[in-house]
Specification:
Length: about 80
Amino acid sequence: MEETLYSYIQKHEFEVAMTCEGCSGAVTRILTKLPDVKFEIDLPKKLVWIESDRDVESLTDTLKKCGKEVKYNGTK
């Protein structure tokens, strides 16, 4: 039996206390530094979706670097 050597990519939803374009810009700058990560930001709903094989704790810690409150809502 062959083993697969790639990780499972999941789409995670986070609520981030973004109030303006500057906030979403900070999130964008932080997430673009991560390799192999795709993301979407919905500023009016204060939501960030991240597609990644990284663990939730790592993604949460990364998002917290923008200085905003972060809540994990689960996978989508």
